[in-house]
Amino acid sequence: MALHVLVLGAAAGGGFPQWNANNAASRRARSGDPAATPCSQSSLAVSADGQNWVLFNASPDLRQQINDNPQLHPKEGVRHSPLAGVILTNGDVDHVAGLLTLRESQPLAVYATSRVLGVLARNSIFNVLNPAFVDRRAMALDKGFEPKTKDGKPIGLVVEPFAVPGKVALYLEDPEAGADFGTVEEDTIGLRVAERDGKAYCYYIPGCAALTTELGRRLEGAPLVMFDGTLWQDDEMVVQRAGVKTGRRMGHMSMAGAEGSMAAFAGLGVQRRIFVHINNTNPVLLADSPERAEAEAAGWEIAYDGMEVVL
Ligand code: MLT
Ligand code: MN
Questions:
Q1: Using a 6 Å CB cutoff, which residues line ligand 1?
Q2: Over 90: is that where the pLDDT of 48 sits?
């Protein structure tokens, strides 16, 4: 047994290159430039035994991600999947749209906070996940649980969800609700995942608006943290004229600068730090950028599709 963490998609919403992005980085990615490798949208697969897997988020690119990773291919019979289910960290499009790919009467379990399950329940398109085959199970914050297959078999993992600073999904923002757009605690969570029968564990936090003292304390000394790498700097989308929003406005802390995640992690003693959920405007996507060199010099790794970590 071990903890297997497989990056299915390293990019944030839109992927790299995003369909309508015409910046130099996206053009390099389309041209096959080896220093600008395309990345699909945000998702991990996690397993304790290398046989049974659970998804952490279901991206719009999920069908291709499954096809690209033999670990997730059907193994037996006419219909089969090594996927026991999906755990959601928020209701964002890049994390839930892939649920629609998981139709076709395959037994699965979908885990999310009651808040995010409510979002799915109110949108009838998710009924393509036939409730006769797909359970929806509420996760309580700060309570570890064992993800189980639809027929109740644990898969050797213990997952603990916890709230992190964040923002309600873009399509649910309530402009009348003040500066936080109606955000509640259960909108954005991080996950601690551990082997049930071993010592390995890690954290997955693909969206995070701030590294609070409490969150820092939780992560201290961890063997591995996979963390929100959306933007290099807060105003990067504005400066590149790719959008009008800052990272703060979107509920993401940035990597660089005195208030950035690299500085915030500096004293935490986290052994391995990997950025995930990387936006197509972030220069760290380019292997030859000074920002990539700076992140690596600070001890960070930049996730890529197909990256596998075994703890
Ligand atoms: C985010 O991570 O901020 C969202 O996925 C943005 C979006 O919905 O496009
Ligand atoms: Mn996102």
A1: 12-13, 92-94, 170, 207, 250-251
A2: yes
What's the average model confidence in pLDDT over 29-35? 98
Average pLDDT of 79-84? 98
Mean pLDDT over residues 57-71, rounded? 98
DSSP three-state, residue 239: helix
> Which 3 state secondary structure label does DSSP give 65?
helix
Binned at pLDDT 50, 70 and 90, residue 152 comes out as very high
Q: 13 CA distance to ligand 1 centroid (A)?
A: 5
What pLDDT score does 288 carry? 98
Mean pLDDT value of segment 190-213: 98
114 CA from centroid of ligand 1 (Å): 20
pLDDT of residue 208: 98
Task: Using most ligand atoms within 8 A of CB, pick from 230, 250, 276, 277 the residue to mutate for ligand 1.
Answer: 250
CA of 51 to the centre of ligand 1 (A): 31
For ligand 2, the distance from its centroid to the CA atom of residue 305, given in whole angstroms, is 16
Beta strands, E only, the chain:
4-9, 43-47, 53-56, 83-87, 108-112, 134-138, 157-163, 189-195, 201-205, 225-228, 273-276, 300-302, 308-310
Q: What is the pLDDT of residue 1?
A: 82
Count of CB atoms situated within 10 Å of the CB of 95: 28
Confirm if 41 and 15 have CB atoms less than 8 A apart: yes
Q: How many CB atoms lie within 10 A of CB 107?
A: 17
Residue with tokens 């890049």: 94
- Pull the structure tokens for residue 268: 């935490």
